[in-house]
Amino acid sequence: MFGGYAPVSGNKKTLKMKSVKIEGKKRTDLGKKATRHLRSEDMVPAVIYGGTETIHFQAPVMSFRTLVYTPEFQIADITVDGKNYRTIMKDIQFDVVTDELNHIDFLELVEDRKVVATLPIKFTGQAQGVKDGGRLELKIKSLHVRTLPKYLAEHIVVNIDNLQLHGNIRVQDVVVDNMEILNSPRIPIASVVTTRALRQADTEAAAPAGGKAAPAAAKAAPAAAGKAPAAAAAKPAAKK
After folding, report:
1. How much is the mean pLDDT over the chain?
2. DSSP tally for the chain: helices H, then strands E
3. 152 vs 231, higher pLDDT
4. Could you give the count of Cα atoms lying within 13 Å of 221 in the half-sphere of its Cβ?
5. Which residues contact 174 (CB under 8 A, 6 or more apart)?
6. Which of 27, 93, 146, 206 could form a disulfide with 56 if both were Cys (CB 3.0 to 4.6 A apart)?
7. For residues 206 and 24, what is the distance between their CA atoms, to the nearest angstrom?
8. 8 Å CB contact between 119 and 145
9. Distance between alpha carbon 60 and the CA centroid of its chain, in Å?
């Protein structure tokens, strides 16, 4: 247990992976002029590597949108000249001026070969610390993992029900079957912190305990002041 939080086991159920189908055509001319011409026709150059061969291909920019512009992790099922490749996206390049999609790298999945992937975190439940008045802060939204292709998942589930006020869930607290998490183990991924309203309530609750002695002291002061005239009046009588 770290930071008051027991290890979390995620992804107990096997989830069916979402996939995007892309139809491409093999490229033969890889020169800069040919590449510029492709982009002018709303085509995107791409490459598939990691299998028995490296495949350079092109596909319409619209066919990549559901894969690129989403936080979800998906499989890319690519068909190039009638041959199918099961892949994951590994790198993406955008034009520095127009921000248009320039190039994509795909890694072909080989059944018995482990891959490194970035999987989003899906937080479930409601932190106990939030119920007690704290505020939930999510530090990171994804984890880097190494696993076999058959164990890839759309996301890693992390339940936060037992996360207490001032507590943290760290990378080392997340345990996923058949996956090696590559992030630094001490990095927090979620925390519950004190809010201003909660700090103010604590201050107000503590104030009466510290203020009880003040009225008694105030009452003692007039009493002491009242004794002074009596003492002054007694002095003349002593001189006679």
Report:
1. 84
2. 5, 15
3. 152
4. 6
5. 7, 8, 10, 143, 156, 158, 181, 189
6. 27
7. 69
8. yes
9. 32
Q: What are phi and psi of 223, to 5 degrees?
A: -60, -45
Q: Which two tokens stand for residue 146?
A: 């190494």
Phi, psi of 23 (to 5 degrees): -100, 120
Q: Determine the Cα–Cα distance for residues 84 and 175; give it in Å rounded to an integer.
A: 34
Mean pLDDT, range 87-110, rounded to an integer = 95
Handedness of CA 88, 93, 94, 100 (dihedral sign): negative
Residues 6-59 pLDDT 10s = 556 566 554 568 899 999 999 988 888 999 999 999 999 999 999 999 999 999
Give, in order, the Cα–Cα distances in Å from 96 to each of 30, 41, 102, 153, 198. 21, 19, 10, 32, 45
Radius of gyration of the chain (CA): 34
Residue with tokens 């869930």: 169
Query: How many CA atoms are closer than 13 Å to the CA of 41, on its beta-carbon side?
Result: 11
